[in-house]
């Protein structure tokens, strides 16, 4: 089912997106603080989208399992 390197690249992209779902709310908090000129703690942090994070973690786990048994 395709090139193994392509699967590892797709897995890397999946985990980068997963990390971004956790980092994005903090980045938006910092951006809001700098735009308004207030301390970071005074700006509310947006919630992490747990549905997207869970789906990406599940996809990553399935891909790791598939690649492990493929070799």
In short:
The protein is mostly helical.
Structure description:
With 71 residues, the protein is mostly helical. The chain has two helices and no strands. It is elongated and about 55 Å long.
Range of strand content:
under 5%
Q: Low-confidence parts lasting 5 or more residues at pLDDT below 50?
A: none
Alpha-carbon distance between the two ends: 12 Å
What overall form do the CA principal axes indicate? elongated
Largest sheet, in brief, is: none
Which structural class is indicated by helix and strand composition?
A: mainly alpha
Order of helices and strands: HH
Overall pLDDT score: 87
Total of DSSP H or I helical runs spanning 4+ residues? 2
**Number of beta strands:** 0
**Approximate helicity band:** over 70%
Radius of gyration equals 17 Å
């Amino acid at each position: 089912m395709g090139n193994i390197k392509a699967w590892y690249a797709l897995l890397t992209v999946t985990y980068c997106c997963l990390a971004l779902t956790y980092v994005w709310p903090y980045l938006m908090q910092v951006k809001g603080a700098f735009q308004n000129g207030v301390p970071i703690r005074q700006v509310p942090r947006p919630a992490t989208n747990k549905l997207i994070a869970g789906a990406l973690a599940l996809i990553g786990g399935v891909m790791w399992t598939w690649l492990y048994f493929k070799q």
